[in-house]
Request: fold
Amino acid sequence: MTHRVPHPFGAVCSAAALLLVWILVFGLSHAFAAQSQSTLAYPGSKIVDYERYGSFSGIGTEKYAYHVTDEAGLSQAAGEGIPPNDSYSKDPEFHRLNAAGALDGDPWRDHLNSPNPRADFFAWCKASSIEEAERLYFAAEALRRCGEWLQAIKAYHAVIVRHPTRYLWLEDHSSYWYLAPEAIARIRKICAEHPDLGVQLEDAFVDVDRGTNGDPNDDRVRVWPGRFVEKRLETVPRSAFQLTAQRGNGKVRVSKYNDRFWQLEVNGEPFLVKGVTYSCTTVGESAHAANLRPWMRLDDNRNGKNDGLFDSWIDANGNNRRDADEPIVGDAQLLERVGANSIRVYHTVDAQGNYDPAFYDKALMRTLQKNHGIYFIMGDFLGAYTVGSKADWRFGTNYTDPQQRENMKRSVRAMVMDHKDEPYVLIWLLGNENQHPHTHTNAFKKPVEYARFVNEVAQMIHELDPDHPVALCNLGTLGIQELASEAPAVDIYGANVYSGDFCMGSIWQIEKRYLDRPLLFTEMGSDAYRTGRGPDEGAQADYFNQNWTDIETNVAGARGEGTAIGGVVFEWMDEWWKSSKGNSWGDPNKHNIEPDGCAPFADGWANEEWLGIFGQGDGSQSHFLREPRAVYPAMKARWTKVHKG
Reply:
């Protein structure tokens, strides 16, 4: 039987193609974090020392195993909900909820993310027909939502120790994800955000080396179960930072401190990326119809100013017309007010497939940087969607083809030479999830060749422009081992990550282990539509808040991994052409409400046309009308907060 379970993969559409979404459990998990302050009747010990109750073999190999020798002792230490302990059935709260019918129903359907996480916990505990690994993981999820932090991290750790190779398939059986790496991520996030627990998980890592044919039987999984130690995580003040490494010495660079923390710096000052993927797409236009216009060139009202950046207005009362008390404000001001400091942008190509300088308005870009503090993350698709490679769409970009490689290098070189001396450049960004099969490249099948080409291009950029770092835009951690060994010239690891509202997932540990580079989330965010119920702005705002908390927990000097340099929210405003529903490419004149596929959002579905920080109302005043969603003030509260340290 296949269930629509929480998972790491779903469909979210970016400006040019279908994205593969990364990681985890959906739902407004944090909304219940403090709901239940009661304690379990049988919580067990503070931490479980598994070596005391059994023995490990094959640590760090594919033959890992844990062998229990003292089941009674392990049961007492583990506490209810964690095998082999079954004392949950004696808990008075279990009996009360069971008698009330709160535990009825199918766990997959009724207890993944209900308004009663305590009931969800017990429902998973008693679901004897479900595999132990799943029962443990989702019981841990429910415990976390209850605010039972210690028992939650013990349950997650039990998944790692007892079932580190367990995976779950997606509903459509198109892909799968492993429980243990995400359990580690959740433990580390909880311990970092709750230092009062006084514990930390050390030396835990589950290394999944995936095959290239999508079959888990071809994966290699090596396991380090780790152990809990009683240790309080502390922040490191900036006054205690000591420079230990540096990539670049120009205007923009990345520096490593205390042989542990990474930081992006502009003109010698710390710079945390607070970015958006910006567009100003008119309703009715579509990338699939090839009638999308470059947003930097929009001036439909012919007043000599950019429509989106200087002529947009807030529809405060939602009546889809501009009233006398609704002045023109412009996106430039809205970006500045929310605390944004960067825009991610990719150039287009001309009719011959070459770099098109006409896409840009340099005067506009200079104005944004000078007057509003907005820098540009300058992207080249590096062959994704065959942009730059001039490859045949049917076959996709081939990173072993000499002519295609030269075409792509020529495109990158033209972009760099066109902008390298401009004040608005923050970093150079290569690719966009090129190892995703839907981006029409062979990078997934040829990860080594792709990584070597990335390195070649990064080296070329460094020679052309020593003042700005080079970042790669990847999908999660696909091919990260090959990139680590073959692409040392890449300064920043960028990843598009849609991870669920609680955390950004296992990317922190995996990226730090293999690459040891600063980590930039080149896409993040959630849609604002709950399938079957309508717009859900609160869920979108909550999702952003949790993701940004995870980023702040992992910046230099914080209690996490110390590699985060910020994130880019996808996207500024709804684009009505994104959905594939309705007809072959959807109707760009209609705001689609059909789900586009499973995703780790609040309702478990992705609605591609509702990812905007702003809506466009009924579309009649596109592209000037801005309908701010709850995520906008949420971003403003986080991005304009004064940090001390």
Observations:
- Residues 161 and 411 are 49 Å apart (CA to CA).
- The first helix runs from residue 50 to 53.
- The two ends are 52 Å apart (CA to CA).
- The first strand starts at residue 11 and ends at 13.
